[in-house]
């Protein structure tokens, strides 16, 4: 990856943005897209919309949600231990024993998620799945007052945010789902900046996907696109315990994943495949037999209907603090979206035939 692209991605990852608290990621997008987009605006919901060639007759929306899963401060007991609730979907087994940051008004505060040591558990307790309601956060405070001097009820919490480079160009981070998608849709616009295109392109960092695909619904209604493509993560199946019969044969380094199914307009799917073949961009296909759990779901159903598509990047260990993706897949996903847009003209027909 280009150094500038890697720096952009790193800043996105390091901007703590649980659903409902996406302002840090929005600031990063506005910073990096200045000079690339013809227009940049943030709507009342918090979606950040970058526009290229706004006078184009065909409106194409690219959506990558910038929110991540996280937690929220719910209660502080008299001894200074903080009880919390989940923002988004968690495997509760991975929550105990983690370093976390509470993103308070005065700055981030380090804490740890605590539970009873295994030595003190009886055999039945050891068999039970950890539940968030039975865990707490310890910031080292002596009592409730010390906590409430620096923390407020409702403050967002994230795992200790990490961004690391692994072997073979693989990347590890907290929150690739889906700040990676935000990066891809913005990078696609950068690739298009000096190209002659017919379409108006709206690259959107959507909000609140993890709690019900909310930002895609409001931003798509405002943009009223003819075509809308979401960029998200997909389950990689190239590591132990993943059932390829259920997920499909999806691997890192083999290119972006183009979804096919009822949530995807067949003409959009075909044009994405044509763009990949024409430019020799590696790609994979995933069958999605129902509405996907992505921004593509609500984009498709906006107003009287939108020609929707979904381009994903394979992701290992989804919704954990150590998600792993391929930098090469990221670059190819952005290139695929850009090449797709170059093919769209006012005469392009997306009515299924």
Walk me through this protein's architecture.
There is one protein chain. 28% of the residues lie in helices and 27% in strands. The protein folds into two domains: 235 residues, Zn peptidases (Aminopeptidase); 90 residues, Peptidase M42, domain 2 (Elongation Factor Tu (Ef-tu), domain 3). With 353 residues, it is α+β, with helices and mostly antiparallel strands. It starts with a helix and ends in a 10-residue tail after the last helix. It has ten helices and 17 strands. The strands form three sheets. It has an eight-stranded mixed sheet, with helices on both faces. A six-stranded antiparallel sheet has the order 5-4-9-6-7-8. Strand 10 and strand 11 form a beta hairpin. The radius of gyration is 21 Å and the shape is globular.
Question: What's the helix and strand layout?
Answer:
Layout: H1 3-13, H2 23-33, E1 39-42, E2 48-52, E3 58-65, E4 70-76, E5 82-87, E6 99-104, E7 107-114, H3 123-127, E8 136-138, H4 144-148, E9 156-159, E10 163-165, E11 170-173, H5 176-192, E12 199-206, H6 214-223, E13 227-235, H7 244-247, E14 257-260, H8 266-278, E15 284-287, H9 295-300, E16 307-315, E17 323-326, H10 327-343
Parallel strand pairs: 3-12, 3-13, 13-16, 14-15
Antiparallel strand pairs: 1-2, 2-12, 4-5, 4-9, 6-7, 6-9, 7-8, 10-11, 11-17, 14-16
Helix pairs in contact: 1-2, 1-5, 5-10, 8-10
